[in-house]
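Support reply, case 0932

Customer input (verbatim):
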Amino acid sequence: MSKFTLKFDDERCKGCGLCANFCPRKILYLDESRINKNGYQLISISDPEKCIGCAHCAIICPDSVIEVYKNE
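Our regenerated output:
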C-alpha cells in the first residue's frame, strides 16, 4: 500500500497538465479515457506506490484540484 493518497476534484480539473509536468516521479498523466462534464481530460496516476508525497502537483495546480494525504 502506498504511503500517500492523491485525491482529485475531477469536476474542477481543466486538464492543463501542469501537475503531470511538475511531478518528480512522472506518475501523473492526462488520461484520454477519462473526461469530466466540461469535456476536459482528467489527470490519473499510473503508479500510486511511487508517490513520495512531495505535493508539487497540488502546489502547482491553478485550480486547487489535488489534495495529498499521508496514509496512516
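We compared this against your earlier run and they match. Two observations from our side: The mean pLDDT is 96. The two ends are 11 Å apart (CA to CA). Please reopen the case if you see a mismatch on your end.
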